[in-house]
Amino acid sequence: MGKNTKFGVLYIVATPIGNLEDISKRAVSTLSNVSLCAAENTRNSKKLMNKYNIRTKLISYHKYSEESKLGFFISQLKLGNDIALISDAGTPLISDPGYLLVNKAIKEGVMVIPIPGPSSLIAALSVSGLPLDKFVFYGFPPRQKKAQKSFLTKIVSDAKTSVVFESKSRIKGFLKTLAEMSPDRNIFLAREMTKLYETFYKGSVRKVLDEISSDENAVKGEFVLVIEGKAKEEDQVFLNREQEKVLEILMKTMKKNDALSLASKSFGLKKNSLYKLTLKRK
After folding, report:
1. Are strands 186-191 and 161-166 parallel, antiparallel or unpaired?
2. Which of 56, 64, 118, 179 sits in a 20 to 30 Å window from 187, CA-based?
3. How far is residue 18 CA from its own chain's centroid?
4. Domain boundaries in the chain?
5. CB count in 10 Å sphere of residue 10
6. Residue 280 reports pLDDT greater than 90
7. CA 194 – CA 199 distance, rounded (Å)
């Protein structure tokens, strides 16, 4: 379906991730001139609106109301009203609500326009000092321990730089699990970027974990974690504790080739890499 010029426009507007001065003139102009602004957190967004004297009506639109309010926003767009979508901070849809609205708007022929600006993902990558020719963004890790280990197994086995978001209450636990699997892997940890207590940590997982464990204030705020990819010359694979146990049992109860084949299929790892791992352990 083509774009309907009688419809309103849906603007996806990036807002500051901390420092309220990190906003473009175009973003301020857009927020001032749309009919409505869909905001993830209206109380937080009011601070930004007040600073720039923006009087546009704010309507709450978060992950718990994405479906229930979808019809309302689409109907407003079809009536010819322009709408801006903003998240709590940074660029909308990056681990934030908005996918349902953007997807539905596109299907209905509504024009969707980005107003680019701040992103904690890109900000952290740009100062990490880690390779950026290829990277993978994973968002927030699973909370369950077993799922988290599988999640990390994929990351530490990847040659590309990885980026993860994590909360203050779970960052230590996540780093401890990562340290069990790859203690010397280089990482970059950004806390409270652009805010008063902005802090960066860089070095091996073990080093960074020691630093934040000895600083009570280190686990306050929000975190972006950049993880170095596996070096291309590395033949080593990384197994979590459960995989280690399974491989050990298979090697004891089956022929080596059969055991490695089964483990390769089960773990999603190359058979040759597992073979080289067993040779190194002899």
Report:
1. unpaired
2. 118
3. 17
4. 9-118, 121-227, 241-280
5. 26
6. no
7. 9
Task: Look at residue 46 in the predicted model and tell me its pLDDT.
Answer: 97
Neighbouring-strand partners of residue 135: 161
Q: Give, in order, the Cα–Cα distances in Å from 21 to each of 93, 194, 224.
A: 22, 10, 21
Query: Mind listing the pLDDT tens digit for each residue in 97-151?
Result: 999 999 999 999 999 999 999 999 999 999 999 999 999 999 999 988 889 989 9
Question: CA 262, 263, 268, 270 torsion: positive or negative?
Answer: negative
The CATH code of domain 9-118 reads: 3.40.1010.10
Fold matches, 9-118 and 121-227: no
pLDDT of 97 reads 93
- With residue 262 as reference, give the H or E element that holds it: helix 256-267
CA atoms 234, 240, 245, 250: torsion sign: negative
Structure tokens at 217: 């204030």
75-78, long-range: CB < 8 A, 24+ apart: 76/8, 76/35, 76/36, 77/7, 77/8, 77/9, 77/10, 77/105, 77/108, 77/110, 78/7, 78/8, 78/108, 78/110
Which DSSP helix (H) or strand (E) runs through 263? helix 256-267
pTM above 0.70, yes or no: yes
The CATH code for residues 121-227 is 3.30.950.10
Burial of residue 281, with CB atoms counted within 10 A of its CB: 0-12 exposed, 13-18 middle, 19 or more buried: exposed
175 membership: H or E segment, kind and range = helix 171-181
Distance CA 84, CA 101 (A): 11
Q: What are the residues whose beta carbons fall under 8 Å from the beta carbon of 233, sequence distance 6 or more?
A: none
